[in-house]
Amino acid sequence: MENFQNSVKAVISGFIDSLRGFVLIFTLDRQIELQRSRLLEINKSKTDSKRRSNTASKSFVREKQEEPRILHRAVQCSLLNGVFFCLSIFAFYQIFLPSIEALLTFSFSVFGQLNTAQWVWSWTAPVLSATFSTLWILPLFVLSKCVNCIWFQDIADAAYKYSRGRPQLIPSISKMIADMLFSMVIQALFLVQAMLVGLLPIAVFNVVLSTLHMCLLYSLYSFEYRWFNEGWELPKRLTYIENHWPYFFGFGMPLAILTSIPSSTLISGCFFSVLFPFFIISGNEAEPSTRTGSYPLQLFSPVVALANALFNRTIGKHATRAM
């Protein structure tokens, strides 16, 4: 009973911690500026000469100009994904296409040929949709994903430097690259696993299990920037989530719920990109509850085994041949 109560408390704690970013993101920039100002004053007080003081001041000003502002990056994510992407899709399907259909129907109705109008529209609409998807949605989607990765990293790095200091990255560059690539494969496979368990012919259970997967995946997304900066390798990150899954289930729940509201996968992706910066901040500032006493949920084990098998059959085999 005590373990159950601790698990419930951990879920609630994770849920509350995940929402802290929506408040902190509006104050972090000011706190970072105050922190830098204090450091500058300390450097000035320790300076023995005016020349060294001026050098430190210039260095500080240059660092301040180069360092991205957290709130500014979050607003950019919202504008790119929420305004340009979502609104363009909405305008096309809710305004442009209905207007073209109405104009086409009116033009043919003048000559009493409504059936012809319906026939023309039956092949015009798919052509317009395909053209819009190919020339606008797909390029913008790829661009937004690339830009979002850069902006998300800027937000995570700025928040981490403020609260935890200089990042302690994985020392080996080759190991770092391998860790990043393997992490991407694990996340993709885990997303597929979440979709598959959602298709199980067991009412309610499949929804709960799929939601649990998505909550843990979103928690991994949110905390991975922080753990990567702390030098945690992928096995340690996954084991930590599996061992303390109630907290991370609660932490990922708001984002999982909010992104499940839209029926369109593209709109859901836009929602995720708009909201995710807040959860990066939350993950950076959170202190996960580790006193749950729950049994580990080894949900990542199947995809890790599959990824290892794929790696051994492809890259590992080529590496062996090269040797």
Q: How many strands in all?
A: 0
* Broad shape: globular
| Element pattern in H and E | HHHHHHHHHHHHH
Strand content: under 5%
What oligomeric state do the depicted chains represent? single chain
Sheet with the most strands, sense and barrel status: none
What structural class is derived from the secondary structure elements?
A: mainly alpha
User: Which range best describes the helical content: under 10%, 10-25%, 25-40%, 40-55%, 55-70% or over 70%?
Assistant: over 70%
Instruction: Report how far apart the termini are.
Output: 56 Å
Low-pLDDT residue intervals, each spanning 5 or more residues? 55-66, 318-323
User: For the CA atoms, what is the radius of gyration?
Assistant: 25 Å
Tally the helices: 13
Give the overall pLDDT as a whole number.
83
Family: Belongs to the EI24 family.
Subcellular location: Membrane
GO cellular component, one term: membrane
Keywords: Membrane, Transmembrane, Transmembrane helix
Q: What would you say about this model in short?
A:
With 323 residues, this protein is mainly α.
Q: Care to describe what's here?
A:
The protein has a domain at 2-56 and 70-78 and 169-322. Helix 6 packs parallel to helix 11 (265-285). Mean pLDDT is 83; it is low at 55-66 and 318-323. With 323 residues, the protein is mainly alpha-helical. The protein has helices spanning 2-18, 21-24, 28-45, 50-66, 70-109, 114-164, 173-197, 205-229, 234-243, 245-260, 265-285, 301-313, 315-322. The radius of gyration is 25 Å and the shape is globular. It is a multi-pass membrane protein. This is EOG090X06IP. One of its GO terms (biological process) is macroautophagy. The chain crosses the membrane at residues 79-100, 120-143, 176-196, 202-221, 255-281, 293-311. Belongs to the EI24 family.
